[in-house]
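Ticket #192: bound-state structure for guanosine-5'-monophosphate.
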Amino acid sequence: MKLLEERILKDGVIKEGNILKVDSFINHQIDTSLLHDMCNEWKESFKGKRVTKVLTIEASGIAMGTMLAYSYNVPLVFAKKTKTLNLDGDLYQASVDSFTHKTTNTVVVSKKFLNKDDHVIIVDDFLANGCALRGLIEICNQAGAKVEGIGIVIEKGFQDGGRSIREMGYQLESLAIIDYMDYKTGKIIFRH
Ligand code: 5GP
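RESOLUTION: The complex was predicted; output attached.
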């Protein structure tokens, strides 16, 4: 998505350790007009799919998830992160390694909010190694819900998540794919 790529080049900040900061338009301050355009792109990509829920993970996915869910007129469900293993039988749960924080969280979704009749679009801000997405897919599998598609804002194509998720057979729509970035020079190369 050209508009997003231009914005990343203008306002994205590359940090050591392969982290891209997009705090001024996605992760802290949110450009709602850009978010709206991004949701339209996803809707075009997932045209014809039956969607009953949008699923994301707290916290960064909630804004884009809400806007997308609103446009489908369906609920947004977000997986909650907990530090402790919760053995409550009323929860679906999966283990997710955090790329940015180098910790492992258990993520949970109440069984009340996802079930075998659901057709789900999963969204998130970044795709790096794919741990967050695999956790959300695992939760859909536990619920018996069908994953209709996955929308990502920025995929870091030099990490392995995108390839592994596509190999699993999912329709993965990343609005920008970065094949190379260098914090020393600030250079970013997108995949087209
Ligand atoms: P994964 O689970 O695919 O390894 O990493 C994805 C998760 O880590 C996303 O939910 C995102 O919050 C965070 N993340 C991964 N890489 C970056 C990055 O370069 N910048 C930011 N801001 N978050 C990232």
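RESOLUTION NOTES: The chain has a mean pLDDT of 95.
TICKET STATUS: resolved
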